[in-house]
Write a structure and sequence with these properties.
Radius of gyration: 32 Å
Strand order of the largest sheet: 1-2-3
RNA sequence: GCUCCCUUCGUCUAGAGGCCUAGGACGGAGCCCUCUCAAGGCUUAAACACCGGUUCGAAUCCGGUAGGGAGCGCCA
């Protein structure tokens, strides 16, 4: 039997890190077993589902590179099927109509809570459904009242639930629309899902779903409940910390491979290995190696991974991303060769592409002011001779390249009898406007002769006139 | 309240009775390298929640305690 997994988000918000991790594990498991990964949108809550959220989820999945093999399917398109299955359950006396009003239910719940009992439906319509004029009944599933239901969870192990703890859940609302625990079962059954991999907030729903499978005469799938993902402070993930759309990560300058690599290590491990190529993840992934306990997001580690991928990634590909980030801060660059060269020069000093774009502005546009501290420190009467000397020597260079520039730098240093830093740093401030840049020879090469000389002249003038 | 789940360095984790004076990674600290910032190299601090039991021997097995979480909707 080929493995079939599904990722089934409800489109009520964006795809956040938790959902992305669940999708990743489903995707990896399917890929590992040469099976299918199915995308199913659980949009039966028409009040809260939005097309924007659907799109955001699709975009997120695509950005992370988890292409679905089937779907996306929409539950709202399966209403006929749910009705049919509900009717089947009704006919087989595995479900019944319930005419209890919401008020009645509410009262029941309050009384049970007051008695310190677990709130649940008491089954009053189960045996004697009293139809009431004008009341559209809901359909309830007749849950077994005795015995136990066992979930042989692939990550939790054997979890046993007393059926007496479960009540008769509503599978169809009074308006005829189906509810979650029912649609999940029908779809998982119809789509021949073999492994349900989902967040562990669903563990408690599992025995109910298994009972519905049983009533339908269908074999339940295997289940694997993943531990939660917590915010950096160990608190539940919320909009405040971490629960942003995965697309926000792109905007913040992260690479999808870094996000995926970060996510795969949240709750899963393969010995001590930290860096995984996509192929390795697929090859090594196994639910048996998934952890039971919740894990907190560690932004620093994500940053570290991101830089790793920036350093090791293909500069030409990264160049396009850098161009995108530059554009977002108002700089349009069409020279992809230069972009790639900047990526090479900046890779080891940028943790995100966004940082890289910000640190690379001076390569593409003129800066207005010098960084005050850097100017005070490096633009002095003492550095003026060095600046003039290097300016003159640079102007005479035949081939404008980093190695040639480096030789000039060393020649200048030797002639002046000072340390390299005494010359390099003032030059750096002169051409970049600040105290930070890639190695000065590389920086000058990238800037080009004309620009470098012009900025050097500007700096010399600035010092001569006592700041301008 | 009831049911279910979880518990190794700050964080992610290795560990499936002796290989553990508990390993790796991020982050931290220190040193080295160095034209800035980084990157890199080396070193280092830092954890088995607690209490009992089983065993010659327990981070690993069992029980309890504590703490955390989830669920208990005509939401998904």
């Amino acid at each position: 039997m080929t493995v079939r997994t599904r990722f089934a988000p409800s489109p009520t918000g964006y795809l956040h890190i938790g959902g992305a991790r669940t999708a990743l594990f489903c995707w990896l498991y399917a890929r590992h077993h040469h099976g299918q990964f199915i995308l199913r949108i659980e949009d039966t809550d028409r009040e809260r589902s939005t097309p924007e959220a659907v799109q955001a989820i699709l975009d997120g999945i695509a950005w992370l590179g988890m292409k679905e093999d089937e779907g996306p399917f929409y539950q709202t398109q399966h209403f006929e099927r749910y009705r049919e299955v509900a009717q089947k359950l009704l006919n087989a006396r595995h479900a019944y109509h319930c005419y209890c009003s919401k008020e009645e239910l509410e009262q029941m719940r309050n009384e049970q809570l007051a008695r310190k009992q677990k709130p649940r439906y008491d089954g009053r319509c189960r045996t004697h459904p009293v139809s009431r004029a004008g009341v559209q009944p809901v359909i309830r599933f007749k849950n077994p009242q005795s015995g136990q239901t066992t979930v042989n969870d692939l990550v939790r192990g054997r979890v046993v639930f007393e059926n007496s703890e479960l009540d008769d859940l509503i599978i169809a609302r009074s308006d005829g629309t189906p509810t979650y625990n029912f649609t999940v079962v029908v779809d998982d059954m119809d789509m021949h899902i073999t492994h349900v991999i989902r967040g562990d907030d669903h563990l408690n729903n599992t025995p109910r779903q298994i009972n519905i499978f049983n009533a339908l005469g269908a074999k339940p799938p295997e289940y694997a409940h993943l531990p939660m993902i917590l915010g950096p402070d160990g608190a539940k993930l919320s909009k405040r910390h971490g629960a942003v759309s995965v697309m926000q990560y792109r905007e913040d300058g992260y690479l999808p491979e870094a996000v995926i690599n970060y996510l795969v290590r949240l709750g899963w491990s393969h010995g001590d290995q930290e860096i995984f190529t996509r192929e390795e993840m697929i090859r090594f992934f196994d639910i048996a190696d998934v952890n039971k306990s919740a894990s907190a997001i560690n932004p620093d580690k994500l940053l570290w991974l991101n830089q790793h991928y920036i350093k090791s990634g293909d500069p030409d590909r990264l160049a396009a991303e850098l161009g995108w980030h530059l554009m977002r801060i108002g700089i349009t660059v069409t020279d992809t060769v230069k972009l790639a060269a900047v990526v090479r020069a900046q890779a080891e000093r940028a943790r995100t592409l966004k940082e890289m774009a910000e640190a690379s502005r001076f390569f593409f546009e003129e800066f207005t002011d010098y960084d005050a501290k850097a100017a005070v420190k490096n633009f002095t009467v003492e550095t003026l001779p060095a600046l003039r000397e290097i300016r003159a020597r640079l102007a005479a260079i035949e081939e404008w390249s980093a190695p040639a520039i480096h030789r000039v730098l060393e020649g200048t240093v030797a002639a002046l009898g000072v340390k390299l830093g005494k010359v390099a740093q003032p030059v750096r401030v002169a051409v970049s406007g600040g105290g930070v840049s890639p190695p000065i020879d590389v920086t000058l090469e990238l800037l080009g002769r004309e620009c470098s000389l012009r900025r050097l002249d500007r700096a010399i003038g600035w010092i001569e006139t006592g700041r301008s």
